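Quick look at the format.
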Amino acid sequence: MSIAILAAHTEDNKNKYFAAYNLSLALNATLYNVNERLIKEDNLIIIGMRGLEHYKKIRNTIFKTKAVIFSDTNFCRYYKWCNEYVSEHNIFVYAMPDLHDFLFCKYVPAYQTITIPDIIIKKPDDRIVICHSPGTIKGKFNYKGTNQINEVVEKLSKKYVIEYKLLQGFSHEKCIKEKSTAHIFIDQIIKNNPFVDQNRFGNQIIYKGGLGKSGIEGMLLNCCVITSMDHPNTEPYFPPPPIIMTDYRDFELDLERAVCDINYRNKLVKKQKIWADKYCGPEFVSMNVTRHINGTANTP
């Protein structure tokens, strides 16, 4: 069985923390850049929007099986086109569970393959370190609810000894190092947040948030991860992540409990690390995202 993986940014394939690269190693697959046109393998796994758009240019190539992995919210902006295209061309879909509302085709829930560098994880004892990585989209700073996160953390800082690290403009290596010192990592606060601009998706469906790559890295670095999202539809493939699932209205109370209740926080950290090691590791992810090849893929 020969497998090809088509992904963007494979010029970075020497970076062993790159998800597509890890997946290619786990599957003994050939990794192709989206600029390449000749793919020789029998089975094709496409990663992301750019990969799917490139597939349109080479679709005359005959594959035994075809699948696409949607792991970014950019999918939300093109969800109608994507759903119709994968259905028309018999492409199986694997998608992050937070994209559930945008999918009307068959799919299997899947998180990314995440690995992090070997690093000494040390948390301060004299204060609670909280991290958040805002990111930006076309100059929009608040698409993760960063402004509201900042306000809540500032309010709690008046009651507790807190150090707040906003991870913006850092290299990946620097982000990992800073995140390793955090007791709590806040991914995004979008659900029921009236201050987050949903227009970037260009449709009428409201995105409720989810667990992204940065949050999974936080789990692997022994942070207590909190994010806004609905309870994900992942059974029977794997259990939902044991993170703090909140929304804009409950965020302050949920964060305060994580700050002041060390036993609660430590129990969650332990569960989250075990979950992320198993269900975001290359062995499980590679097994999960080849269900269409061995014929065990079903709808959730």
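Next, a different chain entirely:
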Amino acid sequence: MKLRLHGNSVRLRLNQAEVAQFSKTGFVEDSVHFGHGECLTYALESLSDLPGPRAAYRGGSLRVQIPSAAATEWSTTDRVGVSGEQPLGNGKHLSILVEKDFQCVHGERDPKAFQNPLVETGR
């Protein structure tokens, strides 16, 4: 699972195996280790009672949560992603995007990534 943080946005990109695991369990997790026992853990989970995507950060752990209905549709169809905005107050928001990781059109191919639709159309 790839994590991208930029400004007030969080993006998770999952390969085929991770999407399959998420489809079965409603949960997938990864981490980055920095040495000296320090790490950042990040997870995607499905919850039935959510109106939209949300994220929470506590004690070195980032949890991105998406509604179960959207999670099921995303993980079992050709739908590319699930997105939403989490209000933060004072007119600010956190943009959240969870998407399938596609193979690069140019450069090294990742066999775990999804087939890029641009390759199929010849673009």
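The chain has a mean pLDDT of 90.

See the schema section for token definitions.
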